[in-house]
DNA sequence: CTGAAAGCGCTTACAG
DNA sequence: CTGAAAGCGCTTACAG
């Protein structure tokens, strides 16, 4: 690259010190600098098309105006939507964001944290993979500003912004019950991640508090390694036997997608043969035959607030903020109310 | 943040100069440094958990090992998939990537370029919006290393990595003709972007070289501002009148998505009432009733090669590389071969 | 084999 | 009102 013009070049051209140039261009000490000199400096800066070197500025101020964002996989719509929201909010405050995908892998996550920290990002937004508590604790010990996003560890006193996961599935099950469904299955991920286990807990409580039995056999925990066949099999299992389910709740967007694929290939009719509640919103639903009832996360609010909180906590001694946002249940055709059989309602 | 340990700290602890520490930790001049001192330096570095400050290193070397990536919108699956591929390839070579979304807006693109350049990224990967030729020319004048990705300007002699857009739709139309379709419509974007106009040109040539008339009325150019209703209307228009189309080719992934939505809500049967070729591959297709024939871009190859080329061109005097990758036509049910009417085939 | 010194491009407390 | 000077944390040509 061609050498860019520096403060020194301007200083020389105008015949002043670099200090003065710095002050003028940063609009500092305005009242103490003669208008004439200031004007000339600005003019020359313009002429030479001066662009400050952020790296030098960063070294001096130890602020990079850069945020690190660690997502599960930037190619995943949830992550990329989040990235976009964070980008916009960061930009609004003059920050740039550098991202990395952890692939839900603790080693990768650690490597990303190290890389981003070596690059002196001012703060970190982290969708933490399972098994990264110790990494997060270390960050905290180092007093690195960060906020956990989407996931968090209940055992750690850190800032986070996440969904009220418990309530999200609770509401979904409640809605199914209200619509007349009684044998409700759950397809979820086998993981220690709190935000997922909370979803299972919400499902269980909703059943019990509505007088329905919680049956372990109706909860299918998948590893996520072999998605399409595993989900297909889980659905089959739930729908066969002497006590088949009449509704299924999915606890993640991927599971929902794989589930709908399986439902399509198994020619299951929604909602007459099976009611379905999906997790997260996605364009893909719109191409599916039946419109899908789903749990909608307030992504916009989540990304925006998380970024704001992070930016806040760049100031020393900012208190921890822990927020659980409420999901919205978007009710569509896949959970249409059952006409309760006359026999039952008569009794 | 807590003060991190610096080269100086190690130097003091060991009782040597920072220079020596730097050499040892960077594995330089290995043969000229006593094993004992080197060992001790490494040990202390380990003990103090030394992490080099990339910013300082960057200021000195004027290399940041950071790549800038400008996409249309990181929330768009095409962009985010690309971002992921770039991330992985960059990481493999020890680079980090910072991204920005242009929203196809020249002003935003310019702002992004300036920001990224001020942050001293080593090079730029740009999916250039329409109307940014001058920005790209300026980059070239400044000898900033960059490679255009997905889009490019035929008038500019710059490195790029893109699709063979002409051939992509040519092949699609050819396939439709081979399958017996004769009245083929095109739904495309109204834009000056070369990669899109090439797709229209491919469509036109394929028709003409296969003895079919090119009719302007069968090409619908949409602004993209009002997607769902506009696409629905375009499809209706193409399928009514005295010469309705029997097939439609879409030239972008968004158009395809909106098109399929419209097709679903208009209850058009694929392929009996209409054959469809989509652009790009997306999960969403898998939830659609009919499996969709689509033009598949070699995303992986594109992102990976583009990154490699950019990394290459960080070395001075690297020649320009211009590459058009071939698309693959993935043939599925939506363009099933028509049984040619007996009358016609008999003649 | 080792180190003093300059310098990357800025900012800023301090002195005048 | 203005500027000399130190320093952020590194690298590296140079001297010994």
CATH class of the largest domain in chain A: Alpha Beta
Structural class of chain A: alpha/beta
> At the third CATH level, what is the topology name of the largest domain in chain A?
Rossmann fold
In oligomeric terms, what are we looking at?
A: homodimer
Physical arrangement of strands within the biggest beta sheet of chain A: 2-1-3-4-5-11
Q: Which strand-content bin applies to the residues of chain A? A: 15-25%
Number of helices of chain A: 13
CATH superfamily of the largest domain in chain A: Response regulator
Mean pLDDT of chain A: 93
Percent of residues in helices of chain A comes to 40-55%
The residue ranges of chain A in which pLDDT falls below 50 over 5 or more consecutive positions are 341-347
The total count of strands of chain A amounts to 12
Biggest interface pair, counts: A-B, 53 and 53 residues
Major sheet of chain A, described briefly? 6 strands, parallel
Distance between the termini of chain A: 84 Å
- Overall structural domain count of chain A: 3
Task: State Rg of chain A.
Answer: 27 Å
Please identify, by name, the CATH architecture of the largest domain in chain A. 3-Layer(aba) Sandwich
In N-to-C order, the SSE pattern of chain A is: HHHHEHEHEHEEHEHEHEHEEHEEH
């Amino acid at each position: 690259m061609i050498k860019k013009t520096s403060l020194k070049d301007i200083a020389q051209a105008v015949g002043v010190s670099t200090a003065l140039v710095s002050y003028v261009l940063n609009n500092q000490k305005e009242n103490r600098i003669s208008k004439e000199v200031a004007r000339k400096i600005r003019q020359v800066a313009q002429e030479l098309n001066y662009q400050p070197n952020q790296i030098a500025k960063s070294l001096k101020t130890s602020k990079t105006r850069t945020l690190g964002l660690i997502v599960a996989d930037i190619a995943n719509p949830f992550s990329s939507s989040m990235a976009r929201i964070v980008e916009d909010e960061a930009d609004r405050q003059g920050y740039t964001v550098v991202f990395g995908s952890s692939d839900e892998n603790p080693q990768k996550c650690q490597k990303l944290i190290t890389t981003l920290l070596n690059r002196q990002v001012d703060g970190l937004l982290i969708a933490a993979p399972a098994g990264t508590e110790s990494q997060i604790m270390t960050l905290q010990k180092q007093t690195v500003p960060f906020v956990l996003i989407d996931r968090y560890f209940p055992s750690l006193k850190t800032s986070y912004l996440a969904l009220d996961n418990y309530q999200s599935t609770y509401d979904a099950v409640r809605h199914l019950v209200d619509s007349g469904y009684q044998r409700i299955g759950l397809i979820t991920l086998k993981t220690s991640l709190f935000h997922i286990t909370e979803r299972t807990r919400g499902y269980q409580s909703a059943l019990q508090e509505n007088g329905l039995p919680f049956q372990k056999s109706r909860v299918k925990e998948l590893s996520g390694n072999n998605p399409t066949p595993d989900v297909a099999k889980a659905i089959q299992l739930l729908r066969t036997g002497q006590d088949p389910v009449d509704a299924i709740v999915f606890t993640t967007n991927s599971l929902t997608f794989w589930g709908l694929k399986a439902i399509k290939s198994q020619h299951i009719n929604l909602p007459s043969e099976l009611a379905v509640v999906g997790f997260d919103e996605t364009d893909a639903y719109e191409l599916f035959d039946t419109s899908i009832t789903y749990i909608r996360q307030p992504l916009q609010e989540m990304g925006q607030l998380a970024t704001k909180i992070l930016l806040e906590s760049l100031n020393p001694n900012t208190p921890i903020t822990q927020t659980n946002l409420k999901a919205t249940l978007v009710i569509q055709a896949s959970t249409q109310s059952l006409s309760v059989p006359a026999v039952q309602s008569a009794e």
